[in-house]
Structures are given as C-alpha cells and as structure tokens.
Specification:
- The chain has about 400 residues and is an all-alpha fold.
- It folds into two domains: about 5-200, MFS general substrate transporter like domains (Growth Hormone, Chain: A, Up-down Bundle); about 210-410, MFS general substrate transporter like domains (Growth Hormone, Chain: A, Up-down Bundle), CATH 1.20.1250.
- The protein has helices spanning about 5-45, 50-65, 65-75, 80-95, 100-105, 105-135, 140-165, 175-185, 185-200, 220-235, 240-250, 260-285, 285-295, 300-305, 310-335, 345-370, 375-405.
- The protein is globular.
- It starts with 6 loop residues before the first helix and ends in a 5-residue tail after the last helix.
C-alpha cells in the first residue's frame, strides 16, 4: 500500500513555494531596477561619484542594520510583521523612482537608500520564516527551492526592462526609463498581495519545526563563529557584478547592450545551482559548501585574465553558481547550527558580516583593478580558499557535538 504524504510536510512545501513566488515577484522588481538604475541616475544629473557613494551607502545600511533587525525579530517573535513592513518599504520605493524626472536626482538617491532599509528590516525575519518550513522538508532542499523561485524573478526583471527600453528606443531616454520603473509597480503589487495571502494561510510557520536537532546549539557557539569567519573570507573574495561589467565594457570584451543579458543568464544559472547544491547539502552537509566554494572561486581568472568573450561569459556563469550556493546552502547551514529561538539573531550576524566583507573586498578589488589584474585575481582566490579551513573546522566541532548528543556524526 502506497504511503500517504505527510500533511505537515506537504503544508511546509506549500508555504515555501508561496514565499518563493513572493520572492520571484519581489526580485523581478528590485533586480530589474538594479540593472538600469545607474544610467537612470546619470540621466537625472547625478555624478559617477554620487552613484558610487549612494550604492555603497545603501548596501552598507541594508546589511549592517540586519544585526539590529535580526535581534529584534528574535526578541519580539513578530516575524510576519517585520517581514511585511520590510517588503512594503522595499517594494514601494522602487516604482516611486518613476517620479524622479520631476523631483530630481536627490529624491531618487534617497529612495535607493530607503529601498535598502526596507530589505534590512525584512531579511532576517523572512529568512527565519523560511528556516522553520525548511527544517521540515530538509534545510538544503527548502532554501534551494526558495532561492530557485527567487532567481527566476532576478532573471526576468532585467530581461523585461531590456525589452521595454528597446521598444521605447525612439522615445526620450529619461521618459523611457521612468516608464520602466512605473511598470515595476505591477510585480511589486503582486508580491505584496501574495505575502498577505501567505500570512493569512500560515500565521504560525514556527509550528513546522518542533524537534531540536542533535548538535544544534541554543546560542551562538564556536562552530557558528568559525563558520561566520569562513563566510566573511568567502564574501571578501567574491566580486560584485558591476566590477565585472565595468571590466567587460572597458576592455570591449562584450557590447554594452549584451552585458545585462549576461547578468540575466548568471541569475538563471543561480537558480539551477541553488537546487543542485541544496539537495547535495542535505546529503553531504558542509562538504557541499566546500565544493561550491572551490568551484565558484574560478570566476576571477576567467573574467579578468582572458580577454575573450566566451571565457569571460563562462566566468560570469561560474560566478552565478557561487551566487546560487550562497543564497541557499550557506543559510541552510545556519539553520542546522542554531535553534529557532536565536535564529533571527544568527541570520542578522550572518548577513551583516557577509555584506560588510563583500563591500570591503569589492572596494579592495576595485583598487587592485587599477594597479594589477593578476593581483586582483590572486586576492580573490586566496580569500575564497582561506574560507575552506574554517568551514571544515566548524564541521568537525558540529560532528563532535552530534556524537555526544546521539552517537551519530553529521555529514
């Protein structure tokens, strides 16, 4: 007789899919805007220095504030409230950029900072909600499913706006960009509507997770901090896409109009990689993280040293594999290390550390770019390779804790 599916597991899958679709439309909105906001600000009259400063400030706020919002989500247990408020701020700010031609570049820059502020509010709480359901279906698989749906939106957003700007090619440029931002109100509204639906159908996602896992700590113990140190090194050596796009444009490796399409392709690879490494993590644990780190480290020499279009594109796609792993299994590992009572705080530290060192590493690689491309590549490789011993050390400590708890080592 065929076994009936577990109703709790089925509900957890439904919840993850629903939140994943929310992320799909959310990413369609903000990744679409990310692909065109630089040229838009320049058309509005902002200087290149202003664009760089505002982008860096927004990213810093978006990551640093997660320390506070992660802690607050654990203290208050208002995971849904913080998620909804954060999404609302995050998603309303983007289509509001359509009004910038009449209000100026200062208004637009302010909205970009507000958008990152909204993401800082929602991210630890939303990731914690996902972790509750992911524990029921397998943390690797659960986060991978959410990330795959998320990245479908990240792929469609730049493609949609590329089509809008191409079709409006004969129109005044500033008006075409404003129309593109106005159209992003549609996916933003859909994302907010689906989020409220998810809240009404699943008011207590924490009930998906009932049992504490062997080796899982009630606080933030040494394995977590070793793991976080590895994450910071990994982030420091992982270049942001604008630097790669700058290089491909400056060296005429690709035509400028094809660079957003390459980025969209990386987002598509990101989704596939998230599913693959998510399933691998559930079988191999930290070994999957080590494998993805070694593989994604290869992006730097491919992008920055070859000069051939197909090699650079291959490097960007390898970079996309790393992005898929980072957004799925890196968070899955935190879920396996920390109990649900402290997970918002853990995700807050995780995101803040990752964001800070990504910013510092990208800044250093930008300096190295002007002086020595081989130096940039060597730094990237050493930083990412340096993360591996910390991951292995965290695994060893988790294995000892698991053996003490129930006599079984973790993968």
């Amino acid at each position: 007789m065929k076994a009936q599916p577990d109703p709790k597991k089925r509900a957890a899958y439904s919840f993850l899919v629903l939140l994943g679709i929310v992320s799909l439309f959310s990413d369609l909105t903000h990744e679409g805007s990310r692909a065109i906001v630089g040229p838009y600000l320049l058309l509005l009259g902002a200087s290149a220095a202003t664009v760089g400063f505002v982008s860096g400030l927004g990213e810093f706020i978006g990551y640093a504030l997660r320390l506070l919002t992660g802690y607050l989500s654990d203290r208050t247990k208002k995971y849904w409230l913080m998620t909804i408020i954060g999404y609302a701020i995050n998603l309303i700010a983007i289509p509001a950029l359509a009004l910038a031609p009449g209000l100026g570049w200062v208004y637009a820059c302010g909205l970009l900072v507000v958008e990152r502020f909204g993401k800082a509010i929602r991210n630890p709480a939303k990731t914690t909600l996902v972790s509750f359901a992911a524990k029921e279906v397998g943390v690797g698989k659960g986060f991978a499913l959410a990330e795959a749906l998320d990245q479908i939106g990240a792929f469609l957003g730049p493609v949609m706006l590329f089509l809008v700007l191409t079709l409006k090619g004969k129109a005044e440029k500033l008006q075409a960009y404003a129309l593109a931002f106005a159209l992003l109100a549609i996916p933003a509204a859909i994302a907010l509507g689906l989020l409220l639906l998810a809240r009404s159908r699943y008011p207590r996602p924490q009930d998906f997770e009932t049992a504490k896992e062997a080796g899982q700590a009630s606080g933030l113990r040494l394995p977590y901090w070793l793991y976080l140190a590895g994450i910071c090194l990994l982030a420091a050596g992982f270049a942001d896409f604008p630097l790669m796009a700058f290089h491909m444009s400056k060296k005429a490796i690709l035509p400028d109009n094809l660079i957003p399409i390459v980025y969209a392709g990386a987002m598509g690879i990101d989704a596939v990689a998230a599913l693959f490494f998510g399933r691998l993590y559930d079988r191999k644990g930290m070994g999957a993280i080590v494998l993805s780190t070694v593989l994604s480290a290869c992006f730097a020499p491919l992008v920055f040293l070859s000069g051939q279009a197909w090699v650079a594109v291959a490097g960007v796609l390898v970079w996309g594999i790393g992005m898929g792993a980072q957004e799925s299994i890196l968070k899955a590992a935190v879920t396996g290390m920390v109990s649900k009572e402290r997970r918002g705080t853990a995700f807050g530290f995780f995101n803040a550390g990752f964001g800070l060192f990504w910013f510092l590493g990208s800044w250093l690689m930008g300096i190295l770019y002007e002086r020595s491309l081989p130096g940039l590549v060597v730094f990237s490789l050493i930083a990412q390779a340096g993360a591996v011993p910390f991951f292995l050390g965290a695994r060893a400590l988790l294995n000892r804790a698991a053996v003490r708890a129930d006599g079984k080592a973790m993968p």
